[in-house]
Amino acid sequence: MLESITTIGVIGAGTMGSGIAQVAAQAGYTVRLYDIADDVLQRAVERILHFVNRAAQKGRLDPELARTVPERLHPTTDLHAFADCQVVIEAAPERLDLKQRLFADLESIVAPDAILATNTSTLSVTQIAAATQTPHRVAGMHFFNPAPLMRLVEIVAGAQTAPHVCETLAALAERMGKTPVHAKDVPGFIVNRVARPFYLEGLRLLETGVADHATIDRLIREGGGFKMGPFELMDLIGLDINFAASQSVYNAYFGEPRYRPSLLQQRMVESGRLGRKTGRGWYDYEEDA
Ligand SMILES: NC(=O)c1ccc[n+]([C@@H]2O[C@H](COP(=O)([O-])OP(=O)(O)OC[C@H]3O[C@@H](n4cnc5c(N)ncnc54)[C@H](O)[C@@H]3O)[C@@H](O)[C@H]2O)c1
Asked: Which of 3, 40, 185, 208 could form a disulfide with 35 if both were Cys (CB 3.0 to 4.6 A apart)?
């Protein structure tokens, strides 16, 4: 199946979708990138080409390959353009109803043997697949942020996913230079399950006035040897996405107190301070936004 893949559809041109589109184009695939608005797509393509050129300048990407990326990228606001995609990777916002609707729509557009993958961090792959008539071809393909740099990809089988679908996605991840790991369809899979208390304990320390967010980040980096503290990481991920993931894991584990989201997260989202992507989150990025 891997050899028959030439064209990959990516849904959502935000933080993850644009990164995944970049990775796929750099691996030599034709990429169709869907979003709901032209200006979002335009910004995404500019961002991708900027990163591709930078990677080529720094010697991390073959300049010949970098030159071919623009002709491989096909932005669109019409999902019907995905008709020739053998694989679709969905990276739309972390909302079950939205993802279910997209998968149901896709089913009537792509070929019957096309693979439908979701980049969800915490939602049930089984539940997303249940919105289709062909749940055997739906699986999770969970990239990490930033997708062009992070090697790990979790491959997640839903309750009805056919084994060959996960095998093909794992082989595709390898073709993209990634390290695939098979994970079970449990809320948060492996990495987001382990990482959830990282953010939430940081928020609880802040809520109870133990330390401010910059101090917590600095201690975790300097004392703990982590690359980023929880607040810096939330800004990179996007506070809206991180909050949605917190809610999703909390609800999926029947209100398990360990995973209780924080009101502070909610306030930040309500005030539109979503992190790097909006120029402001826990920190100010106005200059490089
Ligand atoms: N941000 C992270 O660190 C991260 C890491 C791994 C996985 N994920 C997952 O990836 C998915 C996307 O997250 P993100 O951070 O890229 O979000 P984002 O907010 O940066 O991007 C989402 C994109 O989806 C578009 N969109 C909105 N409604 C849509 C619709 N109806 N159909 C198609 N596109 C629509 C938006 O315009 C936006 O461009 C989520 O499921 C999230 O859980 C995020």
From this structure: 40
